[in-house]
Amino acid sequence: MSNVKPLGGDVYEIDTRMAGYAGITAGYLILSDRPCLVEPGTSGSAPTVQRALTELGVGAEDLATVVVTHIHLDHAGGVGDIARMYPRSEIVVHEKGARHLADPERLMRSARMVFGDLLEPLFGELKPTDAARIRAVEETGEIDLGGGRRLHSHHSPGHAKHHVGLLDSLTGDLYVGDAAGIYIPKTADVRPATPPPDFDLDTALASLDKFQALRAQRLLFAHYGPVDAVSDTLERSAEELRIWVDAVRDARDQGLDLDHAVAAVQERTLGRYKAYGPDADPELAEKYEMLNGAASNVAGIIHSLDKHA
């Protein structure tokens, strides 16, 4: 079965099959005059992405641009591999992430501390990209897609300080990365993504307000897929963030440890997510817990609360 799905407007969703899982991480090819890959996924996903681009008629010399919303390994871990496979492509990233793509040693060392033996099967190794091929964008930026079509980047920290959203001038698609959380297509759930060390509630909410103001026609989630209900989904994302942070703040004020804070969040959000409900497919919940674990989210919120305290 092909892992490529046409979404209209010369946009193609590519299931990057992170760690072999289907429907958990999406990259997107904009097949414009200057083809652009948004979110290449992990290093382990690079051969999968390459096969998809070949299926779509994009050869080694054809890919003009690779853009990442941020440098977390499920989004950008394959940048070095893809850069080698497509030697004419320019790599676009926020300025706060650029040096880590050129020299990933510090990022990989940190990832090994967090993931240990799981690092290799989940993500693989982020390989360095020639700094001369990296273009850093700041508060806003522009990617030429050819024929007058452009991707406009908008700095959207809160999930990560190096996060950008990307708005397609032709389709109105907004590539939201993780700034609007995790979308589970099977159940239409929206869950926060609040990992350490960068999560900050006020900053994340400001980024969602910025996304609302862009008046996009559709949201394209890296996890996972297209969503037409733009305003409602962004509002739900903000609501979920507030609920999780309130629950963790209450647990922290009671002196509870991480495990008890996780339990407090799970109790507070009981019934909010069909994917985690009593009638849910346990494999679905397991898959998303691996991607977006409650313990990691709660740890990120605690880190943020401690920083502000």
Automatic annotation (TrEMBL):
Annotated Pfam families: Lactamase_B
The lineage's top-level taxon is Bacteria
Record-linked CDD domains = ST1585-like_MBL-fold
Name the source organism.
Answer: Thermomonospora umbrina
Protein name from the UniProt record: Metallo-beta-lactamase superfamily protein
Q: Which Gene3D superfamilies match?
A: Ribonuclease Z/Hydroxyacylglutathione hydrolase-like
Metallo-beta-lactamase domain sequence ranges: 24-223
